[in-house]
Amino acid sequence: MAAQFDAVAELTGTFKTLFEKRNWMLAVPVLVTALVTAILIAIGVMVGFGSLFAAGGLAGMAGAGEGGRGPAALAAGIFSGAGLLFLICALVGVLVSVFGYAWAYAAAEPVWKGGDPDIGGGFNRALSKLAPLVVLGIIVVLVAGLLSWTIIVPLAVFFFCLYTIPYVMQGNQSGTGAIGASINLVKDNFGPTAMLFLGLIIVGIVAGIINAILGLIPVLGQIVAIVVASLIGAYSTLAIMRWYTLLTGSAVATAAPAPPAPPPAAPTP
Q: How far apart are CA 37 and CA 19, in angstroms?
């Protein structure tokens, strides 16, 4: 039987929790790993396309001197150099992002007990789960990438894998075990999970609109956009932790603060 709770109140309460005390620091793991991921992808693009241009130059010379072997040489350069290097950098970048969310998840545990985020302790806990996180990241990326011919399939993959990081970090599951457990939890609680997924999409769309507007401001707009995206990542982490707790009966998170009730109406004379 699916758990019953007020999804809107939980999402709202979690948003308030993010900006209480020093809880905004949960954005730090997401921010740090996002910057590392961006650097890795930039390296892949620069070095990869450098190899591609070099292959193109060699292909032109080969085509001129060997009667049409240029295209073959160019294709060989793409698939043996540029494309492969870019894919490796992108994959490592995704794994770094997975680690970042696991780091934020572990750091968030004291928040639900009234404490401050444990950034250092969260990093060590995520590091201790590195092997299952790597397996998890590789499987999800490969499945979503191979089936990315339509946006629906990757969305479905991420929907059913929504609780994989909690199952690794909190449920002590392996990478493959976390995927199976997450799928079963989503199937048994489809309605509440759909509300969470929809809420995260809406928050992401709103943040995207804000970032698109602020992005028109040179430099400052890009900095603000990165900060906003990191805060959205921290909010997503808190919300997924809250849902996992409610759906599994875990004892990590206490009740999220609900929006204040309206004051009682004054008695009529």
A: 26
> Alpha-carbon Rg of the chain, whole angstroms?
23
| Amino acid identity at 235 | Y
Cβ–Cβ < 8 Å for 206, 171: no
The whole-angstrom separation of Cα 124 and Cα 73 is 47
Q: What is the pLDDT of residue 91?
A: 85
Instruction: Name the more confident of 148 and 214.
Output: 214
Residue with tokens 């707790």: 245
pLDDT value at residue 58: 47
Give the residue, 117 or 249, on which the prediction is more confident.
Answer: 117
Is residue 60 assigned to a domain?
no
Nearest to 111 by CA among 35, 39, 186, 26: 26
Gap between the Cα atoms of 164 and 133, Å rounded: 9
Residue 79 lies in a domain: no
Three-class DSSP labels, 179-236: HHHHHHHHHHCHHHHHHHHHHHHHHHHHHHHHHHHHCCCCCHHHHHHHHHHHHHHHHH
Q: How many domains does the chain have?
A: 1
Candidates 102, 90, 107; CA nearest to 40 is: 90
Encode pLDDT of 122-155 as tens digits: 999 999 999 999 999 999 988 887 777 778 888 8
